[in-house]
Amino acid sequence: MANEKHIVVIGGVAAGATAAARAKRLDPTAKVTIIEGGRYVSFANCGLPYFVSRDIDKRSALILQTPEGFMARYGVEVLLETRATAIDRAARTVAVDGPAGKAEIAYDSLILAQGGLPFMPPIEGSDSDNVFRLWTIPDMDAVHSFIEKRGPASALVVGGGFIGLEAAEAFVARGLATTVVELTSHVMPPADAEFGAMIGRAFEKAGARVITGRSVKAIRGGAALLDDGTEVPAELVLVSAGVKPNVELAKSAGLEIGKTGALVVDEYMRTSDDRVWAAGDMVEITSRVSGLATRVPLAGPANRQGRIAATNALGGSMRYAGASGTSVFKAVDETFAMTGLSERAAKGLGLDAASATVHRYHHVSYYPGAEEMSLKLVYERGSGRLLGAQAFGKEGVDKRIDVAATALAGGMTIHDLAELDLAYAPPYGAANDPVNMAAFAAQNAESGYAPTVSAEEAWALAAAGEASIVDLRTNGDRRKAPVPSAVHIPLDELDWRLDELPSGRLLLLSRAGYESHIALRKLIGLGRADASNVSGGELSLELVPGFVRELETIDR
Predict the structure, then answer these.
(1) The domain 452-551 is classified under which CATH number: 3.40.250.10, 3.30.565.10, 3.20.20.70, 1.10.3720.10?
(2) In the prediction, which pLDDT does 427 show?
(3) Active-site positions?
């Protein structure tokens, strides 16, 4: 056909597959070709760990489409095991090398969707036959086959991010003695430290060993050597130390690369060449929260970007609004989810950020099956603008984070969240949902009605001798989890023991922050303007790294 448009898509997973299918739906007369360097197209890479764990027992379930299926359903040509080696932007051609040999493919519009590449840190012995990554179907097959044929007793996971922890969970499920080594101070580095600690505890409870603040220097036989000289069992090693954008082809073609190291695109997913679009893990996008360039290597954004890139490659004007980085993760028997900025990230960007943490049941406590969950809202002081949220627990976590993600998209504040009319019935929630309760706590702190410090701030103040912790828990709760050097006055005894309160600044502590709020209002009414509530109470305080050890050295 003389006027037939040719859309060439480089990369056939997530963004690429979505773009190709979308292009053909928009213009059935267009010729659409996918160039994919691997052996599979349109596979569910997010599901790979769950095949290794045997939660998914059919390998075929992960292969979403085949070349034959793409042609039969959409009329899209797929070239597998074909590598794009160069882009001639002036001639509008892509040089390829594959089973059919070398060739040049002409395009009217080009969509790059090459994703990311797993980073391999410099580890002696990383080329051993027991060292793997988990990025593609062949990677998954190799790990599964190694477990089935070699029967390793131990596994080491290098890297405590999403893929590494999902792999660790899979190894635990397969009965391997599993160790996770993470270079940063806590697993799940995008999260704040207390949530990283919760995730680490979940894995330790399942039998895994979690080591943070360390790196792997060498892999020798069935063991690995850490940078502090520790040796850990490692008959099977999986390296998941981060992902870098796959931009070498784009860079060689002279396309603009951003400060993050990813490919620059505008709001239409167009690159610095007006005939080339891009989507997925290889691109630099705008954060909905900070407004800054960022990378969000997640499947949801990648698929939406692919849809937009295809639309615009065919003459459309669909805009991409950016991403909040909303994610959810199964931590063995519990769930972690987050959206937007962590408190640490927000402060690192220079924002005047504060947070409110609550530990609440996911539905009313009197209805059977209530599970406690932790929810943290991060917001901007003054404006009250929501900046992010994190949650952890057995039930209801994804629901609350999806609410927060929607609020971020709408530019909502803690005051808006306090007034949200969320669904309630005893089996599903509470009259005041955890989202409402966290927003109430933030409002109370912001207005000065109930001055609040985070658990981390409380640790720093107490450890420096600049404030005294007043433990308002019952004798029973205190015995279960004592806080060394704290002054213990149960809430119900506070009225007649006021003279026992220390002079100077007071940090009021209860199990989860509620009883200490009651005490705070009493003390403020009595003129103690130097009192603050510890957000999240002892449940948050015990997660602050080194808190008890450091506090024990304080001489009261």
Answers:
(1) 3.40.250.10
(2) 96
(3) 46
Helices (H), 35-173: 48-52, 67-74, 137-150, 162-173
Q: Across-strand partners of 378?
A: 355, 388
Question: What pLDDT, on the 0 to 100 scale, is given for residue 280?
Answer: 95
- pTM score, whole prediction: 0.93
CA separation for the pair 231, 226 (Å, rounded):
6
Superfamily of domain 333-447 in the CATH hierarchy: FAD/NAD-linked reductase, C-terminal dimerisation domain (3.30.390.30)
What is the number of H-type helices and E-type strands within the chain?
A: 17, 31
What pLDDT is stored for residue 4 in this prediction?
83
Question: What is the bridge-based pairing of β-strands 283-286 and 263-264?
Answer: parallel
Interval 437-461: pLDDT, tens: 999 999 999 999 999 999 999 989 9
Query: Would you call 231 helix, strand, or coil by DSSP?
Result: strand
Q: Which residues of the chain have pLDDT under 70?
A: 1-2, 548-556
Reduced to 3 states (helix: H, G, I; strand: E, B; else coil), residue 175 is: coil
Which helix or strand (DSSP H or E) is residue 518 part of? helix 514-525
